[in-house]
Amino acid sequence: MTALLEILDINTGLAVGVAVLSLLWWFSVRRPAGAPPGPWLAVPLLGHLLLMMKKDPREQFTVWRRQYGDVLSLYLGSQLVVVLNGYKVIKQALVQNADAFSDRPHSYVNEIITDSKGKLKSQRFQL
Questions:
Q1: Which residues contact 84 (CB under 8 A, 6 or more apart)?
Q2: pLDDT band for position 116 (cuts 50, 70, 90)
């Protein structure tokens, strides 16, 4: 009887673990409403980086441009990124909608590299 309870506990724990991991995966790769289309399969924490490592990233972006159009979205790591392709789309974004595209997104790496005023930190070493 105790062996049966131990097996049920192990199976229940595995089922709950698989369910939790599945929900985490689903929420990490789900696109927000209104996001441009893009590749579907994204790995948690890596995003679409594995798809870009199979061949030259430029060729992969060319394939995605044919498939999804000039504006597409994909995950680089866990960050959703919108990619603009083509002269007309880039000009419209950067010239006609300059206010929306005039700032960089918040990034912890950017904070580490720069000081609070946006200037590069000194990389001098004393010997």
A1: 70, 71, 90, 93
A2: low
